[in-house]
Amino acid sequence: MTPERESTAAESDRPAAESGGRPSGLRNPVRAVRGLGAGTLVIEMLVLLLAIQPIRLVGGDLSGTAIGCIAGLAVLALLLSGLLSRGWAWHAATGLQGLLLLASFLHWSLGVLGVIFALVWGYVLHVRRTILG
Question: Which residue ranges are recorded for the region named Disordered (predicted)?
Fold first, then answer.
């Protein structure tokens, strides 16, 4: 093996962050992470809006105020998905998961959705931390 190949092989064993390269191997890691967060928030918005009718049919006694709160959370998720280029929006989206957990006082199924999306958002933040360092 030539000396150049030996150094290349040794560098490939080290993590990319130590060798000075991009830690993730993505062309634009910031954009990829932002897309993951935005996609997650858009899916959350759709699930919230689509959950209103089944909750009402299954026996949830949702008032107009409760439906308005659910719609407001959905709109907030959509707005935050477009603002993830700003650092504060990531914190606000984490707060949105807390608000969804608090919505369990309106109906228990919203608490279940809150737990699910809080876990998914925790994973998104883990991926963000891993890729961006």
Answer: 1-26
Residue 131's closest CA among 35, 45, 3, 51? 35
Contact 17, 25 (CB under 8 A): no
Query: Which two three-digit tokens encode residue 58?
Result: 């299954």
Quote the CA–CA distance of 121 and 105 in Å, as a whole number.
21
| Mean pLDDT per 10-residue interval, the chain, length 133 residues | 46 43 74 95 96 82 86 96 94 96 90 95 95 86
d(CA 106, CA 76): 18
Identity of residue 112: V
Tokens of 21: 């390269």
Packed helices 87-102 and 64-82: angle between N→C axes, nearest 10 degrees: 160
The CA–CA distances, whole Å, from 2 to 7, 9, 33, 54, 123 equal 9, 11, 38, 67, 43
CB 34 within 8 A of CB 64: no
